[in-house]
Design brief:
6 helices
């Protein structure tokens, strides 16, 4: 029996100390630092013992803490709908992190977390754009241009048979 549980108090203690050291120690700062410390601790424990349940909990907590902090604290968005959208986009990244981390403990990827992650990403993006119509046009224009460039690059590489 290993003592992996010790990473939880160590991570939370270190992150609490970092909160006092690097921030004004407001409530939202504690949410951020302790959430990051707890998420990294659970993810480390899950990867060390190869338990997917701990990886799921660690990945979600690791991305919820910055999502709450960045959406409700500092990035300058005034509309609550856009703030909720930013929070959901961060939450969706946690589900993608589960897929990436599953490859570390196994021989193949676990693909099912991309379903709720993709739904959360799309809903969050829609809320972000719907809550702030001033940036919608420039965001969609830039995203469309980048998507076309990436798709064109993919077609050229497939034509040149980049598998060789």
């Amino acid at each position: 029996m290993s003592n992996w549980w010790i990473v939880i108090p160590a991570g939370v203690g270190l992150s609490s100390g970092a909160c006092f050291l690097f921030s004004p120690a407001k409530f939202i700062d504690f949410v951020f630092y302790i959430g990051i410390g707890l998420g990294i601790s659970l993810l480390f424990w899950g990867l060390g013992t190869k338990l997917l349940g701990l990886i799921i909990a660690g990945s979600i907590i690791l991305t919820v803490a910055p999502g709450v902090t960045f959406s409700w604290k500092s990035i300058g968005i005034m509309n609550p709908v856009s703030q909720t959208g930013v929070m959901l986009v961060w939450f969706g990244l946690g589900w993608a992190l589960i897929t990436i981390s599953s490859r570390v403990i196994g021989d193949k990827f676990t693909w099912w977390p991309l379903i709720p992650g993709g739904i959360l990403e799309m809903v969050g993006l829609g809320l972000y754009l719907g809550g702030n119509p001033n940036i919608t046009e420039s965001f969609l224009t830039n995203t469309t241009i980048m998507s076309l460039l990436l798709f064109g690059s993919y077609i050229v590489l497939m034509r040149l048979n980049f598998k060789k």
